[in-house]
Amino acid sequence: MLPDLKIVQLRHFVWVHELQGFHAAAEKAHRTQPAISLSIRDLEGKLGQALFEKRNARAARPELTPFGVQFMAYAKELIAHHDRVIKDMSLIAQHKSGHLRIASVPSIASRLLPDILTRFIGDATDLHVSLFDDSSEVVLAMVENQQVDFGIASLWEAESDIRFIPIWEDSIGVVCRSDHRLADETELSWQQLRGERLIANGTSRLLADTAAEELVADAQFYMSNMISLLAMLEAGMGITTLPRFAFPAEHGQLRFIPLSEPQVNRDIGIVRRADHSLPVAAQALFDFILRDNELDPKQV
């Protein structure tokens, strides 16, 4: 069986040599000199070779044996590796290092996550983040396939191994150009949208099973990409319905008008695998989001 070398004994060995004495090494280690001598003898016993030449009255400073000279380089290498691992693990444990992988619906990725991540990461330059923004279905699939640590989505299916924690509530409204005849309304009902050219999008399914379902069925256009959808709206091609979070903040050319009849809300939250623990950084961000929204992580 290979000997079990203790890092503390290796440190004692290096300190005796570098500080040129057992007394100085004992002071650095906050130990007694006999304790350091015993530590070195125990290390020599494990290695089966003497590390220092036998001391005599004229040898004030301990000298390394030929074996000790060879072992010194290995001892320093082991100490450096040990300290590097401890430092890295400490940074990971404090979510200051590692790789955080998140998938989110675009509305949250663009409206809320920039501020959340800025405050969460702070000055942690060794914490790397990969953010994927896509539809709720894609986000859910990435969570199920363990491509990301957790996701943020609105539409979801209650699979047995997926857990949904609602965080934000979003309401549906009508988006039109600022010079549209409906632009000055404070709220709208679906009946007021009859006869309008509707541009459907990925969130239009939220109107399914409501009184406004026929609007989606009669939509002349469908746009899956938000940039293309906004361009069509700016060009006056038609109107659309969007969740408030999905509407670009402070957009000068477009107006968001709440849809009051029917009033449609969607829950947006964190989706994660129920049967897997989160990596340290992901768990820290998860808890940060909950606390940021005044939710107790211990009760979720």
Automatic annotation (TrEMBL):
GO cellular component terms, semicolon-separated: cytosol
Protein's UniProt keywords contain Transcription: yes
Gene3D superfamilies per record: Periplasmic binding protein-like II (3.40.190.10), Winged helix-like DNA-binding domain superfamily/Winged helix DNA-binding domain (1.10.10.10)
Taxonomic superkingdom: Bacteria
Transmembrane segments: none
Keywords: DNA-binding, Transcription, Transcription regulation
SUPFAM superfamilies: Periplasmic binding protein-like II, Winged helix' DNA-binding domain
Pfam families the UniProt entry points to: HTH_1, LysR_substrate
Domain HTH lysR-type stretches: 5-65
CDD domains attached to this UniProt entry: PBP2_LTTR_like_4
GO MF, one example: DNA binding
Family note: Belongs to the LysR transcriptional regulatory family.
Name of the protein this chain belongs to: Transcriptional regulator, LysR family
Species of provenance: Pseudomonas borbori
Lineage: Bacteria, Pseudomonadati, Pseudomonadota, Gammaproteobacteria, Pseudomonadales
